[in-house]
Design a protein that fits this description.
The structure holds two protein chains of two kinds. By secondary structure, chain A is of the alpha/beta class. Chain A has a single domain, classed as Cobalamin-binding domain (Rossmann fold, 3-Layer(aba) Sandwich), CATH 3.40.50.280. Chain A contains five helices and five strands, in the order βαβαβαβαβα. Chain A has helices at residues 22-33, 47-56, 70-83, 100-108, 121-138, and strands at residues 9-15, 37-45, 61-65, 91-94, 113-115. A five-stranded parallel sheet of chain A has the order 2-1-3-4-5, with helices on both faces. In chain A, β4 (91-94), α4 and β5 form a beta-alpha-beta unit. Chain A is globular, with a radius of gyration of 13 Å. By secondary structure, chain B is α/β, with parallel strands linked by helices. Among the domains of chain B are: 5-34 and 144-346 and 359-441, Methylmalonyl-CoA mutase (TIM Barrel), CATH 3.20.20; 462-508. In chain B, 47% of the residues lie in helices and 8% in strands. Chain B contains 21 helices and nine strands. Chain B has a nine-stranded parallel sheet. In chain B, β8 (283-288), α12 and β9 form a beta-alpha-beta unit. In chain B, α5 crosses α20, α10 (250-271) packs parallel to α12 (300-315) and α12 (300-315) crosses α13. The chains are: A alpha/beta, B alpha/beta. The interface between A and B is large, with 31 and 43 residues.
Chain lengths: 139, 523
């Protein structure tokens, strides 16, 4: 069983061909500055590769940066693969194009949390910590 | 706070000059006399492109019918990555954030019925392919390359660090840039094959000084390479142009454009030895900042677009596009396109702002800001170039770090309230009451999945031997260090796809044909 003495470990990545990486780099930096270990997988990742990296790297949470609409179409596959891990790895999607309707849609598809634009840095960090805590309790 | 005569040292001939006169601070063309209200000849256009080429063509006709005088096309994400629509990674991104083009027939369909000898066509499409595609479309529609006007953005140095990553080595990006510039000088002499696009460098991240400093660093590297190759600077420099960002800092944006024209003129004359006045006078176009468009109180974005259009008109840009009011959430809707065009027409025709060249020239404040902007941009260029070879800096991630840090800083400015943004950190209203225009902005465009089978069927029916031979020819030319553009045009004419061509070029630079390991080169 893991304990709180280990820093949180998160995977930050971008789905499909979404080109806008600045947001994911910024979030990775934020999380790092908040004391989190960040595994950065960058762009050009599909659900299968994201799930493989998440399991191999033993992360507590996966964060997907979304600045194109591909996340809507990959959400279900990504959520299913990460839920199949033991224990399931929570995933949060966030980015400039995520609307309230998108949030409802991807949560219904199994994504654990979705953060919309204008969210604060503290809220982003709190979201990752909350999801990670749930994952650690299950470990 | 105010500025008076003591704030600035105006040496009119050395620092300003009349519009159309060196150093072109006040504009690159002498004003023509025309009745008030007719505006000056700014090219009015809106960024467009959606679905297959045929649907984008309909968009073009709609825009031209509603007052656009130029076109500006952007590719969907696979296209921007040099990736064909039947590549497995393309699936959910086909045509929903730009047009899907990957072959000669697509460019022909894209420009069907467009008077290519009259309408300027600008391209946010992969470097080299935009010029080749337009050239082939014009050929099919009965026009020679000599009548083609417009431009292509070529982001060689920072493409992999910003929103144009296509898994290409920087040297290949630079090769596509320099070869297409040289090709167009001979075959498309009115076309601007090299737009130094500081918009993509800056939107959402670096500040106004770094926007222009990084842009100049990239532009200077391209110019140095062409001169080193033995190309006469006056052969290519007249067709270089700038596409800048325009955010909400009204006077700073105007000063930035004025300072950039002056810096470019001095640099080309004094450093690169250009003699032709056209080589010294850089045309500036602008795209208003998508990052200043907010997803809250969406109607405010129309106001922002109008203010930005006024700044650009006063700064004397040659062409502009207004980021659509729904830009923060989606690619432009029909409604947003129309409002973008109308905004430009209102500013150009109703305000009188376009009737006089450089109407802010001589303002103590604007001249002071212009001088300060030039000093700061130049100091930053000197600092960066002083660190060493800029390509090596890019390869080492130097610029990538600048972009990431700037992104964090921009977000903090807003979240900490240091930068007021109405509707976001000032005068906010609850989301449930924030519904004006939301239905339009949140409408989604589905991926155009039909295109996958369409391209697969086309690929299977091609003259396979002809495709293979054209790709082999492209490889030979690339490896022999000759200009790749004629062979690239030849390969597209032989029905090779853009993805196939770039795969072969990648191999010439020691990279895998498909870095994502999904498709193989035709043999």
């Amino acid at each position: 069983m893991k304990t709180d003495t280990y820093p949180l470990r998160v995977l930050v990545t971008v789905l499909g061909l979404d080109q806008h990486e600045a947001g994911s780099l910024a979030v990775a930096r934020l999380l790092r500055d908040a004391g989190t270990e960040v595994v950065y997988a960058g762009r050009f990742q599909l659900p299968e590769t994201i799930a493989t990296i998440a399991i191999q790297e033993d992360v507590d949470v996966v964060g997907v940066s979304a600045h194109s609409w591909e996340f809507l179409h990959y959400a279900e596959e990504l959520a299913t693969l990460l839920k199949a891990a033991d224990p399931p790895i929570p995933v949060v999607v966030g980015g400039s194009v995520v609307t309230p309707a998108d949030r409802d849609e991807i949560l219904a598809k199994g994504i654990d949390e979705a953060v919309m634009p204008t969210v604060t840095e503290d809220e982003i960090i709190a979201t990752f910590k909350r999801l990670a805590a749930g994952h650690r309790e299950a470990s | 706070m105010f500025y008076g005569p003591d704030a600035v040292d105006i040496d009119y001939e050395a620092k300003l000059g009349d519009p159309g006169v060196y150093p072109y601070t006040r504009g690159t063309r002498a004003p023509k006399s025309r009745p008030a209200g007719e505006g000056h000849d700014i090219i009015v256009r809106e960024l467009s492109g959606e679905g297959p080429p045929e649907r984008s063509n309909e968009q073009f006709h709609y825009l031209l019918e509603h007052g656009a005088t130029g076109l500006d096309v952007i590719g969907d994400t696979p296209t921007q990555c040099f990736m064909d629509p039947d590549h497995p990674y393309s699936k959910h991104a086909i045509g929903n954030q730009g047009v899907s083009v990957c072959r000669r027939a697509d460019f022909i369909a894209l420009y069907e019925g467009i008077p290519l000898d009259k309408v300027s066509c600008d391209h946010s499409l992969p470097g080299g392919f935009a010029a080749a595609g337009l050239f082939l479309a014009a050929e099919a529609h009965g026009h020679g390359g000599e009548v083609l006007r417009g431009s292509a953005i070529l982001p060689p140095l920072f493409a992999e660090d910003t929103a144009y990553s296509s898994n290409l080595p920087i040297e290949l990006h630079l090769r596509l840039a320099t070869d297409s510039i040289e090709f167009c000088a001979d075959h498309m002499p009115k076309f601007h094959p090299f737009i130094e696009d500081t918009y993509y460098i800056s939107d959402g991240s670096v500040d106004i000084v770094d926007e222009m400093a990084l842009g100049f660093v990239e532009l200077r590297e391209v110019v140095r390479r062409l001169i080193a190759r033995g190309v006469d600077v006056d052969r290519f420099a007249p067709r270089i142009a700038l596409l800048v960002n325009c955010r909400m800092d009204f006077f700073a944006e105007i000063a930035k454009i004025r300072a950039s024209r002056r810096m470019y003129a001095r640099m080309m004359r004094d450093e690169f030895g250009a003699k032709d006045p056209r080589s010294l006078a850089i045309n500036v176009a602008a795209h208003t900042s998508g990052a200043t468009m907010t997803s809250r109180q969406i109607a405010n974005n129309i106001t922002r677009g109008a203010v930005q259009a006024l700044a650009l008109t006063l700064a004397g840009v040659r062409a502009m596009e207004i980021s659509a009011f729904d830009e923060a959430i989606r690619t432009p809707s029909k409604e947003a396109h129309l409002i973008g065009l109308s905004t430009q027409h209102v500013v150009r025709l109703e305000t009188g702002a376009a009737d006089v060249a450089d109407p802010l020239g001589g303002s103590w404040y604007v001249e002071k800001l212009t001088d300060e902007m030039e000093e700061k941009i130049q100091a930053r260029i000197d600092f960066i170039e002083g660190l060493g070879d800029v390509v090596e800096l890019a390869q080492q991630g130097f610029f990538r770090a600048i972009f990431a840090e700037a992104m964090v800083e921009r977000a903090r400015e807003v979240s900490e309230g240091r930068k007021p943004v109405v509707g976001v950190n000032v005068n906010e209203i609850p989301l449930e009451k924030d519904q004006l225009l939301r239905d339009i902005a949140e409408e989604r465009i589905e991926p155009f999945y039909e295109r996958i089978d369409q391209i697969k069927a086309w690929r299977a029916a091609r003259d396979h031997a002809g495709v293979v031979a054209s790709l082999d020819a492209l490889e030979v030319v690339c490896r022999e260090d000759r200009n790749i553009m004629p062979a690239l045009v030849g390969a597209l004419r032989a029905d090779a796809s853009m993805g196939e061509c770039i795969g072969v070029l990648r191999e010439c630079y020691g990279k895998p044909y498909d870095p994502l390991k999904c498709v193989e080169r035709p043999r």
